[in-house]
Amino acid sequence: MGDSGNSTICENLHQMSTVRKSTNIVWHKSSVEKFDRQELLQQKGCVIWITGLSGSGKSTLACALSRGLHSRGKLTYILDGDNVRHGLNSDLSFKVEDRAENIRRIGEVAKLFADAGIICIASLISPYRKDRDACRALLPEGDFIEVFLDVPLQVCEARDPKGLYKLARCGKIKGFTGIDDPYEPPLNCEIVLQQKGGDCVSPSDMAEKVISYLEEKGYLQA
Ligand SMILES: Nc1ncnc2c1ncn2[C@@H]1O[C@H](COP(=O)(O)OS(=O)(=O)O)[C@@H](OP(=O)(O)O)[C@H]1O
Ligand SMILES: Nc1ncnc2c1ncn2[C@@H]1O[C@H](COP(=O)(O)OP(=O)(O)O)[C@@H](O)[C@H]1O
């Protein structure tokens, strides 16, 4: 091996890093970057993080939003808590540390989607502020858009489309969010969507509010 081979090894040694349990790893840069992908897609990659109680309408909003953006020619992808728990996160329960890991993994995957230039819609209860804030910290300023579906427990419980609240109330599900497990509402999120009493706001009206925000902040162009 000549001198140039040695100098490459030395250079790599300088770049070696340790991330948690991964040691001696070196970041490999690609010649096609986020900027190039965004140019191709004519949009900016970001994460729309929808949080709220079970039954608050997270999945419905995620779908309405995805449909609304798709019809405007924008590429989206939904990471729904329920769905991701069918595969990548099927090893996780609902105890506090498993919820934290569920949120962490979805945060990391969402970051990859945003880096791909995609508008990633993450819809999961994500009950703990600390876990949501950790996902926010993974992304550049502005690219994590937290949407709080502020729907009272009584409304969610009256909807109960899967019958889970009923099971939780009679003790057949333990540690159900809002019943015998906590939900910490965001203190300072980008968008709050309220659904109170008789004031019914349709999923598509809610989606339009989010789309207006994206438009205003420049995410719907490269
Ligand atoms: N104990 C308990 N608490 C809350 N929710 C429960 C529980 N057990 C099962 N489910 C069902 O799982 C869905 C929530 O999964 P998430 O991945 O979004 O939860 S979390 O972010 O990890 O807290 C949630 O889906 P949504 O109703 O769509 O929110 C429930 O259907
Ligand atoms: N904006 C809305 N107005 C009235 N009902 C809604 C709205 N969004 C969702 N729903 C209804 O509420 C129930 C729960 O919605 P879902 O999207 O499954 O909530 P989550 O994903 O938060 O559990 C469903 O029956 C759905 O049709």
Tally of individual helices: 9
- Biggest β-sheet: strands ordered side by side in the sheet: 4-5-3-6-7
Give the CA-CA distance, first to last residue. Answer: 45 Å
The structural class is alpha/beta
Task: Give the beta-strand count.
Answer: 7
Low-confidence stretches: none
- Helix-residue proportion: 40-55%
Radius of gyration over all CA atoms, rounded:
20 Å
Output mean pLDDT: 94
Strand fraction: 15-25%
| H and E order | HEEHEHEHHEHEHHEH
- Sheet with the most strands, sense and barrel status: 5 strands, parallel
Characterize the overall form. Answer: globular
Could you explain how this protein is built, in words?
The structure is a single chain. The chain is an alpha/beta fold. It has 9 helices and 7 strands. The strands form 2 sheets. A 5-stranded parallel β-sheet has the order 4-5-3-6-7. It has a two-stranded antiparallel sheet with strand order 1-2. A hairpin with a 2-residue loop joins strand 1 and strand 2. Helix 5 runs parallel beside helix 6. It is globular and about 70 Å long. The mean pLDDT is 94. The site of adenosine-5'-diphosphate has 16 residues, from helix 3 and helix 9.
Gist of the model:
The protein has 222 residues and is an alpha/beta fold. 42% of the residues lie in helices and 15% in strands.
Features:
222 residues; alpha/beta; binds adenosine-5'-diphosphate
Give the SSE map.
Layout: H1 3-15, E1 17-19, E2 22-25, H2 34-41, E3 46-51, H3 58-71, E4 76-80, H4 81-84, H5 96-115, E5 119-123, H6 129-136, E6 144-150, H7 153-159, H8 164-169, E7 191-194, H9 203-216
Parallel strand pairs: 3-5, 3-6, 4-5, 6-7
Antiparallel strand pairs: 1-2
Helix pairs in contact: 3-9, 5-6
The structure holds 3'-phosphate-adenosine-5'-phosphate sulfate (PPS) and adenosine-5'-diphosphate.
